[in-house]
Design goal:
Elements: E1 2-3, H1 5-18, H2 21-27, H3 40-44, H4 58-61, E2 72-80, E3 90-100, E4 105-122, E5 129-149, E6 152-166, E7 177-190, E8 196-197, E9 201-202, E10 207-216, E11 234-245, E12 249-260, H5 284-290, H6 297-302, E13 305-315, E14 320-330, E15 339-349, E16 352-360, E17 376-384
Antiparallel strand pairs: 1-4, 2-3, 2-17, 3-4, 4-5, 5-6, 6-7, 7-10, 8-9, 10-11, 11-12, 12-13, 13-14, 14-15, 15-16, 16-17
Length: 398
C-alpha cells in the first residue's frame, strides 16, 4: 500500500516555513513544529519573546521569565497555518502556570498540537482509496521556574514529543510512521532591580535579558534508529526594554536572536567517509557546542535569525487596557529567506485577556504570495490571583 503524496508535500512545506532551507538541505531536523512561535502576543512583536517572557507563553520563549510572576494563568491559542495553501493545517497551544509559595516558584505545563489533516491511503498498484488516516504532531511540556535573587530567575522544562505522520508504513517498510521522544529546556532571566547607567539613568525594572536553550534531546526515528533525525535544538537570546513607563501609557521594545544547533553539514543519511564507512550525525550533546563553528564565521552570523518589535499599552491597570503591536522578522536569504512584518493588538479587562496577531509579507518584493502571508493567531487568557495586565516596570507580567 502507499499513502497520498499530499502528506509528503505538507510536511515539506511545514518544515520549509518553520525553519531554514539550509537545515532541511543538510541537517533534516525532524518535528519542526517545535519551532513555531505559538502565541499571539509575541506573534505581534515580530516573534520576539525571550526577553519579555512575562506571561504563561514564556514556557516556549523563556521559562525563566515565569519566575518573576505570581498567581495563576491559563491561555489558549489557535491559528490556521499556511492559509495561502488552503491545506486544512491548524495549530493549537494551551498553557498553564501556577505559583506555589511553599516551593518558592511556579509549576507550568503546555500542550502543543499541529494538525496536518486527513489523508487517503491507496493500494500500491491502484489509485483506488483503501482507507484514510489523520496526521499530527503533539508535545506535552511540564516545567518549573524560581528566583535565585530579586534580579535573577531560572526555569526549565521537560517535554514529551509525539509525531504521527502515518499509522502504517508502505508495503516495503516495517514499523509505522509514528515516533516518540523527549527533550528538555534550560533558561535564565536577568531583570535588574537597580542598574544606573551614565547618561541613560537607572535602568532598573526597565531592562530584561534572557537566554533559553530549548529542545535538547535525542534524535527521533519512525522506522529504525539508522534513519533517526535530530530534533530542532534552538538557542535564543532576548532583550526587552521599557522605553516609556507612565501611569496610563507604556512602550516596550523587544529583540531576539536565535540559532539552530543541529548537525548541518557533513553528516546526513547516506554519507560515507573516504574509507566507505557511513558517517553518522553527531549527537545532540555534541552539536550544542559544535554547531557554533561548523562553518566559516561570517556564515555562522548569517545563520542567526533576528526578530524585533514594539508593544504599546494604554489604559488603567486592573480595569481596562488595550495594546497595539508591530514587529519585524528577518532571516538571511541563503538561510531560509523568511521576511515579514507582524501586527497585533490586545485587550485586558479584569481577569480576562484577548490578543491577535497578523503576518504580512506584501511589503517585500517577490514575497507578496508567501505561504506565511495573512497568517492569524488568536489567544484567550484568564488569570487568577494577580491582575492580568502589564504592570509598571519590570518585572511586569500577565
Amino acid at each position: 500500500m502507499k499513502i497520498s503524496s499530499k502528506i509528503l508535500i505538507i510536511i515539506a512545506l511545514v518544515g520549509l516555513f518553520f525553519q531554514t532551507n539550509s537545515l532541511y538541505a543538510q541537517g533534516e531536523a525532524a518535528v519542526p513544529f517545535l519551532l513555531l512561535a505559538p502565541d499571539s502576543r509575541a506573534g505581534g512583536i515580530g516573534e520576539s519573546g525571550s526577553g519579555l517572557s512575562d506571561n504563561s507563553a514564556a514556557i516556549f520563549w523563556n521559562p525563566a521569565g515565569i519566575a518573576f510572576l505570581d498567581g495563576t494563568e491559563l491561555s489558549i491559542t489557535h491559528s490556521n497555518w499556511l492559509p495561502q495553501f488552503k491545506l486544512d493545517l491548524f495549530y493549537e497551544y494551551a498553557t498553564f502556570r501556577h505559583y506555589i509559595p511553599s516551593i518558592g516558584g511556579s509549576v507550568t505545563s503546555s500542550i502543543t498540537y499541529m494538525n496536518y489533516g486527513e489523508f487517503v491511503r491507496t493500494a500500491s498498484n491502484s489509485p483506488d482509496p483503501i482507507g484514510t488516516f489523520r496526521s499530527f504532531d503533539a508535545a506535552l511540556t511540564l516545567g518549573y521556574a524560581t528566583k535565585l535573587s530579586p534580579s535573577w530567575g531560572v526555569g526549565g522544562n521537560l517535554r514529551l514529543i509525539h509525531s504521527r505522520l502515518s499509522d502504517k508504513p508502505t508495503e516495503y517498510e516495517t514499523g509505522t510512521g509514528v515516533a516518540t521522544t523527549v527533550s528538555f529546556d534550560v533558561a535564565g532571566m536577568w531583570r535588574p532591580q537597580s542598574l544606573p547607567i551614565p547618561l541613560l539613568g537607572n535602568l532598573g525594572k526597565k531592562l530584561s535579558m534572557g537566554v533559553n536553550l530549548s529542545n535538547i534531546g535525542p534524535k527521533i526515528y519512525y522506522l529504525d534508529q539508522e534513519q533517526a533525525d535530530p530534533i530542532p535544538t534552538n538557542f535564543r537570546l532576548g532583550i526587552a526594554m521599557r522605553l516609556l513607563d507612565l501611569d496610563y501609557n507604556s512602550l516596550t521594545y523587544t529583540v531576539d536572536f536565535s540559532k539552530l544547533l543541529v548537525d548541518k553539514g557533513k553528516a546526513f543519511r547516506g554519507t560515507v567517509d573516504t574509507n566507505g564507512t557511513p558517517v553518522k550525525r553527531k549527537e545532540f550533546y555534541e552539536t550544542i557546542f559544535t554547531a557554533w563553528a561548523d562553518q566559516p564565521f561570517n556564515e555562522e552570523l548569517r545563520d542567526i535569525v533576528t526578530s524585533m518589535g514594539l508593544e504599546y499599552w494604554y489604559g488603567v491597570p486592573g480595569n481596562f487596557m488595550f495594546a497595539l503591536r508591530a514587529g519585524f522578522f528577518y532571516e538571511d536569504p541563503d538561510y531560509g529567506n523568511r521576511k515579514f512584518i507582524t501586527l497585533g493588538a490586545g485587550i485586558r479587562y479584569d481577569m480576562y485577556g484577548f490578543d491577535f496577531s497578523y503576518i504580512t509579507t506584501s511589503v517585500f518584493k517577490g514575497m507578496e504570495n508567501h505561504p506565511l502571508a495573512e497568517t492569524l493567531r488568536f489567544t484567550l487568557q484568564i488569570g487568577w490571583g494577580s491582575i492580568l495586565k502589564p504592570s509598571k516596570g519590570f518585572p511586569s507580567g500577565l
